[in-house]
Amino acid sequence: MDEAQALSILELPPAATMEDILRAYHLQKRLHGRSGAVFCAPGMEEFTPEARAAVLEQVEAAFALLRAREEAPPAPPAAAPAAADHSAQASALRRAREAAGLSLETVAMETHVRLEYLGALEDEQFEHLPLATVNVRGYLTAYLNTIGLAAEDVVPAYMKRFLEWQARPRK
Mean per-residue pLDDT for 7-29? Predict the structure, then answer.
């Protein structure tokens, strides 16, 4: 499948942004994803469960191809940066998201994580995140998966900084 076919499957114009691609992908999944889906075409007998599965397979393949086209994120942050590197590391997440062509609002919609938590993740404003480590790890992993970075490359160093912050005495 080439890019033109992928765009056609998702019913998108050639100049579609990553946000357009995400919206079209989710719409197609809703339309064809379940047996009670709403269809607009007059002759729906061709949409047997097998036909729906075939369409969903094409939608997934088209989305994967277009997402790969859009993703060229910078290298993930290095492990355990010094305190002076804190702001540079924090902005690495933002740069990766922007390089993927995604707004923070789109990532929030995709991950179902509150916008303020995602902003705090990007800026490493730990005081604005829930104190539960499992929540922060989950939010970060969902964020990274959505923007196309490998969680295993980023999460350990990020969580180390979070845990160090958490261990500091509060005034």
Answer: 81
